[in-house]
Amino acid sequence: MTDKLTGSDRDDALAPLLANGWTVQDDRDAIHKEFVFKNFVQAFGWMTQAAIHAEKLNHHPEWSNVYKTVQVTLTTHDADGLSPLDAKLAKIMDDLARTA
Amino acid sequence: MTDKLTGSDRDDALAPLLANGWTVQDDRDAIHKEFVFKNFVQAFGWMTQAAIHAEKLNHHPEWSNVYKTVQVTLTTHDADGLSPLDAKLAKIMDDLARTA
User: Fold this and answer.
1) Which among A16, B1, B59, B91 could bridge B85 via Cys, Cβ 3.0 to 4.6 Å?
2) What keywords tag this UniProt record (chains A, B) (predicted)?
């Protein structure tokens, strides 16, 4: 069981993500970001790196891919909303995209 | 440029796919299938195999993944509809899923 982010913990966790292109969804307590790469190999290569980290965290994204674009939504079903795991995976994804 | 499937070529190409769980979309000339695996590693492993084949064909899916489920839509933008490449990639995906 993962605790839902609330109060100042939530603000502190979200601030760097919102500054980095993530947005909070209107219709559910989840964050979303669109990643655009040079081509399919770059996009799917990044997904593969992120997938391995997701499995290590036992926390998996909802994501879709069309050629060089990947749409990612993160939320924690156990917590019925955003948890520290979402912030952690979002940061990993951003870090991986920077070096992709 | 890839030619759009028409007439009996289209029927012949689609028949085995429709018999295997693919459906033609209502709103566009595309085929869709949901693949469900045992877990995330199996699902993403299958995606990785399919991604390599897609890149070899230079024909890429629209797909989304949530944990053990992968939704796939295939169409050919150049042809403004279904082409032989979609039938080819769909069959490869089915074959890979059988051995996953």
Assistant:
1) B59
2) Lyase
